[in-house]
Structure formats: structure tokens, C-alpha cells
Amino acid sequence: MISERMQRITPSATLKLNARVQELVAEGHDVVKFGVGEPDYPTPDHIKEKAIEAIHANKTTYTPTNGIPELREAIVRKFAEDNQLDYDPSQVIVSVGAKQCIYNALMALVNEGDEVIVFAPYWVSYPEQIKLAGGVPVVIQTTEETDFKVTPDMLEDAISPKTRALILNSPSNPTGRAYTREELAELGAVMAKHEVWAITDEIYESLVYEGAEHVSLVTAAPEMKSLSIVINGVSKAYAMTGWRIGYAAGPAEVIGAMSKCQGHAPSSTTSISQWAALAALEGPQDPVEEMVQQYNLRRKYMTERLQEIPGFECDAPEGAFYVFPNVSALVGTKIGDREIDSADVLAEILLEESYVAVVPGSGFGAPENIRFSYSTSMEEIEKGLDRLEDLLR
Ligand code: PMP
Ligand code: GLU
Q1: At residue 292, what are phi and psi to the nearest 5 degrees?
Q2: If you measure from the C-alpha of residue 339 to the centroid of ligand 1, how many angstroms do you get, rounded to a whole number?
């Protein structure tokens, strides 16, 4: 009954977990949510006000497919100021979240059977979106040994005559690693040499901590500008996940094709949200700084406590809001009379018995790890880690 295309796709591990958490909460359980990665802060007031103004001013009709000109111009200024990248508004598109930008980029670039490289651990949606676009995901597996980073040699080895594109994500969900300028310049040189397109997902740009910096792939490797689609959005930086605004910049021809794809589904993104996103980009940035300061405190606290738990191995992440411990030392041991035969089982026990939600690493192509998001309050982090310790004791 269901198309072969959809049968090849697995549901989003993060969204599936979120649905289970909501069920448990509805049953009355007090669940500590280290699962889905989304800011726990409300959207800043000045952004909400602009959306309300837009409603009252009847800015509630369809917008141009690629987004309202005011927002695209603000995005152009953002790229110039934050990333020293020069784009024209015709090289920018606004979509339903960064997620849809990535999907549109894949639809615009990938032919049936083309290979698209992803770096594991990867964000859950990349391989599935590649398959939806008719491509074949090719995974470069990284581990703690290279700090979860792909080296230029690893990239060279993975490129074949069929390679069309790759997806890069720095700072990374789920590892929290951020590539340095030098590392990106080296990787960019390999991509440019083989004329591989880069879809560079920079949604966690604002969330970097203590000395780590975010550098855009295109800033570090300018020769990649004609071969890159830079993806960003307001979800993470401005606590605006539900507003569904992401944006992309790249060569006008590809952005045009992305716009064509978007024009047939879903037309454009929400008019009201676009006015709110304009306020986010143009308004005061101190709410972002305050949130980043709080995330940093939580990052340190969570990492230190996880490092003290026997069987949990992790370094402090540099960006995003995830800690990604390796728990392979616990595989083969028991909790009560239940055997932990994989990291997935540990995640399941943690949720069903201790009501602590984490995402198993298998969905990210890292079956020995589990992902903890620290985008929740310090009290919740303390409570969740206490429960984890009790469970393992
Ligand atoms: N990329 C990564 C790596 C993410 O973690 C997320 C968060 N869901 C997204 C893209 C999509 O963000 P959004 O669609 O909310 O802009
Ligand atoms: N990016 C978040 C996460 O990985 C949100 C969920 C999603 O969009 O898949 O948890």
C-alpha cells in the first residue's frame, strides 16, 4: 500500500522519542527531558511583539515563495557581519526551518543514485532526506579517536566518481564538536578539488563555548562558495523552534531550484513567523548571549557529572547543547535482572524505569553512545543525573 520510497525511510528518532515522552507526561509521569534538542527558553518578548503587530497589520497573506524581501535583506546583512560572506538577496531563501532548507538543497542538487556523504555521528534526518531525494547516503564513520571529526584523508577515501554532495554540520548535533578554521580550510580544499557540493548546516552557530569559535565552511574555504549552500535559522539561537524559520544562501541557480521545489510544497513559510524572524535578526542580541551563558554552565555541570559515572566516557562538547557519552563499557552488564545488551536498551530502561529521556545513539549512526541534551533547567539536569546514578547503583 505504501510507496517503496517511504518504506525505505525510518521515522525521526528524535521526534519518535518526543512522542513517547509526551505519552508518559500525559499519563502523569514526571519525565526529565534530555531528549529532543530545543531551547527551554521562551521566545524573547520583542520578537513575539513583532509577530503580534504583523497579525494586527494583516500581514497574513501568502508571501513570495523565497521569503519577504525585508527578511532576505536582513539575512544578507547577517551573513556579511557574522560570516564575512557576501550574498545578494536573490541568493537567499527562507524556508520552513533549516530542516526544509536542507531538504530543498538535496532536491535541487541530487540526481537518482548520486552519492551524498554524511559524517557519522550525524543528525538523524540527513540520511533519510538524502534517500527521499533519490540519493545514496555514504557514511564516513568517526569515533572519539579523531574527536568525532573527519580528516582530509578520510574524506578523500570516501569520494567516488558518483559523489555529488556532502552534508557538514559544525557545531555538530549530536557530538557537540566544532571544526576549527584550519580543519575546514583543509576539508574545503578536498571538496573543491573533487567539485563536491557542500550543504553546510550551521544552525548551532551561536551556541559555542569558551574559546571555541564557529567558522562557516565558506569563510574558511572561499573556493567553496560557488559549490556551497549555507544553512542557518532562528530556531536554536532565538528559541524559536515552533515558528519554523530557516534560511539558506548559495549560488542563485541552486537557490532558484530550491525555490521551485518550495513553491510546489509548501508555497512559502508562515508570513507572521517571517516578520518575527526579522525582529530576531535585527533586534537586540543580548537574549542570545544570556541563553548561551546559561547553556555553558549547564554544559560544564552535566559533562562533569557524566564523567564521574562509571561506564560513561565523554569529553566536554564545544558547541550546540548536547553531551554524547560512549556507554559501551556498560554493554553486557545488568540493571536489576535486565541485561543491557546495547546503548539503545540502556536508553530505554532509563526512560521507562527512571523517566529520564535521552536519545539512543543508533539513530545518529553511533550505536555505542547516547545523547543528553542540556537545553533544560539546572534543577532538571540535577534531578535527571541523580536518577541516572540511582538506576546504575
Ligand atoms: N540541523 C540540525 C543539526 C538540527 O539539530 C536541527 C534541529 N532540529 C535542524 C537542522 C533543524 O532546525 P529547524 O528546522 O528547527 O530550523
Ligand atoms: N534538532 C533537534 C534534535 O535533534 C530537534 C528534533 C528534530 O528536529 O529532529 O533533537
Answers
A1: -65, -40
A2: 34
Q: What is the mean pLDDT of the chain?
A: 97
Residue 33 in contact with ligand 1 by CB distance below 6 A: no
pLDDT of 393 strictly over 90: no
Q: Whose CA is nearest to atom 3 of ligand 2?
A: 37
188, 220 contact by CB (below 8 A): yes
- Closest ligand 1 atom to Cα of 98: 16
Distance CA 135, CA 116 (A): 7
Contact 259, 90 (CB under 8 A): no
List the grid coordinates of 283.
533586534
Among the atoms of ligand 1, which is closest to the Cα of residue 246? 16
Structural domains in the chain?
A: 4-42+287-392 (3.90.1150.10), 60-282 (3.40.640.10)
Cell 529532543 sits on residue? 36
- In tens, the pLDDT along 250-278 reads 999 999 999 999 999 999 999 999 999 99
Q: Which amino acid is at 215?
A: V
Pocket test for ligand 2, best of 124, 204, 322, 370 (most atoms within 8 A of CB): 124
- Per-residue model confidence as pLDDT tens digits over 38-89: 999 999 999 999 999 999 999 999 999 999 999 999 999 999 999 999 999 9
Q: Which atom of ligand 2 is nearest to the CA of 359?
A: 10
| Residue 14 pLDDT | 86
Q: Which ligand is nearest to the CA of 364?
A: 2
